[in-house]
What does this fold into?
Amino acid sequence: RPSGGLATLIHRRFVPHYTVIDVSDRFIAVTVGDFFIFNVYAPCEGTPDRLSVYCELLNDIRHVCAQHAHCKVVIAGDFNVDLVKSGKSAAKAELCSFIGDCKLHSAYELHPNTNFVSYDNSALGHTSLLDYVFVTNLTIVSDIYIVEPELTYSDHLPVVCLLKSSAISSSFTCNASPRDNYAASLRWDRADLSDY
It folds into this structure.
């Protein structure tokens, strides 16, 4: 849909090993085995109060990560900032600071000589890298690549990141507890009103 949003799909074989930890309108946090995974949708340019929303999002993620430092952290999604192209923005500076503070690595570091493009708007002639997978330890990443489907309704291309773990098949888990007061919010402005 044109207004963005988040969804996290878990393969049925991992269902016994996953827990939803936190949900907001900008991120979903789950554990799967010994992985602590964030699915992120950062505000784009033109969003009212973009910088404050961006900073709040990164601070929320930073807070949850600090509580689960023993896990293999994966933070993936649409960050709406191109870290590769030159140019300055306050959101880019905040994201770079966040990456440094949390000692994260981009999974794209596996392929340093590849020019990745995850956003391709042919109508506007814009291409950039806005979608990232950040990890606390690069050794957990087997590979990362971007899929270019023949048919797509989005200007963002799917990013595939393969992760290594022996813990999903064993009994080890991240031992993270869901936030007590989280609730998925219903957006009435996005609901199909004919159903009511």
Remarks:
- The two ends are 21 Å apart (CA to CA).
